[in-house]
Structures are given as structure tokens and as C-alpha cells.
Amino acid sequence: MKRSSRSLLGAATALAIVVGGVLAAAPANAAAPSSCTSGRACLWDNANYKTANSTGNLLWFVQYVDDARRYTYSNTKISAHDSANSAFNNGRTDAAYFWEHEQYRGLWFKLARGQGDSDFGNGVPGRADGYFNNRVDSAAFESIHRP
Ligand SMILES: [Ca+2]
Ligand SMILES: [Ca+2]
């Protein structure tokens, strides 16, 4: 009886450690900026999901942006051409891709659903350098367009 009770306690402790490990890993997936609502992928002129000091000034899409030269960040006159420094994929199902040139040409990187990159300058997923800083000109969810 004593032995059985000790084993049970051991099992409970082990379970708590596993749960603790899972919880500790959760912050790696940061929450989407509130301005980038569900179903959208978003881009900002500056790092940390901001344009002109506000996270509310952004370029967002629910399908694609084929040519960022045609757009400005919302509430600003700042061109989205070769200017994005951060992005978040708050889509419901798809990964999102970001290309260096308009019409999905050139080098690209991918953000999984729920993934953001708050600073292209310190690298993007799959690429360690700041190559994509101020360089993205098209983007799309993978169901619309993929490399
Ligand atoms: Ca910029
Ligand atoms: Ca980065």
C-alpha cells in the first residue's frame, strides 16, 4: 500500500514536469499584433510590427499582394515597395510566402500559420542574414500562390 502510493506520487510529479515543459515552450509563438486580425497576413515598414510608430499602420491581405509598389501602409503615405521589415501570418489555415520581387519572383521565405518575424534585419525563417530587410515586394497564402 505504501509502495503503491509512492509510485502514484512519482507519476504525478513526472506528469507535472512534462506539462511544465509544454507551457514553457508556448511563448515562442507570440500572439499576433491586435491590428493583424484573424485570417490576414500583415506587413509593416519597421521592425516590431510597426509603421511610423503604430502597429495599426500596416499592409494586410487575405489572399495575396502581387505588387507592393501599388500600396501604401494604412493611414500613411509610406510606400510598401521594398520597405517591409516585419510580418505576421495570422491566417486560419495556410502558410504565407514573401518574395523579394513583385509577381512572386526572386528569393522568398515562409511564415507558418501563427508565425511572425518581428525583424527581417536579424534574419528570417530559413535565412540568417538581413537580406530581406526593405526588400519584400509580393506575398501570398500558399493556397493562392507558392514557390
Ligand atoms: Ca522599412
Ligand atoms: Ca527576424
From TrEMBL:
<dbReference type="InterPro" id="IPR006311">
    <property type="entry name" value="TAT_signal"/>
</dbReference>
<feature type="signal peptide">
    <location>
        <begin position="1"/>
        <end position="30"/>
    </location>
</feature>
<keyword id="KW-0732">Signal</keyword>
<protein>
    <submittedName>
        <fullName>Peptidase inhibitor family I36 protein</fullName>
    </submittedName>
</protein>
<dbReference type="Pfam" id="PF03995">
    <property type="entry name" value="Inhibitor_I36"/>
</dbReference>
